[in-house]
Amino acid sequence: MLSYLEQLKHKHSLDDFPDYILIDIHLPDMDATAFLDRFELIVANMETPEIFILASSGSKKNRDLAMQYSFVSAYLEKPVPSDFIEVLIAGKGVDDSPH
Fold it and tell me: PROSITE patterns in the record, alphabetically (predicted)?
């Protein structure tokens, strides 16, 4: 995902950037903080997609860490109903989300 976004930025294909990114707090090759740090460098000086983070626990430490990034819109505990994601994307009820 990060390599793809870097390529889009390099090619000036900013219209192809996603509006939303949904990631798990535990990624196979890196943790979410490493992903968010690298993502922050990629999207510097541009409009950023919203990121929703999924986690299997409501760890306050992890939530607080993730929510320090301006582009992280929500920290959601799994399982998350698909209709809730649709509501977040539609921009309704975001203030009521568990972030």
Answer: RESPONSE_REGULATORY
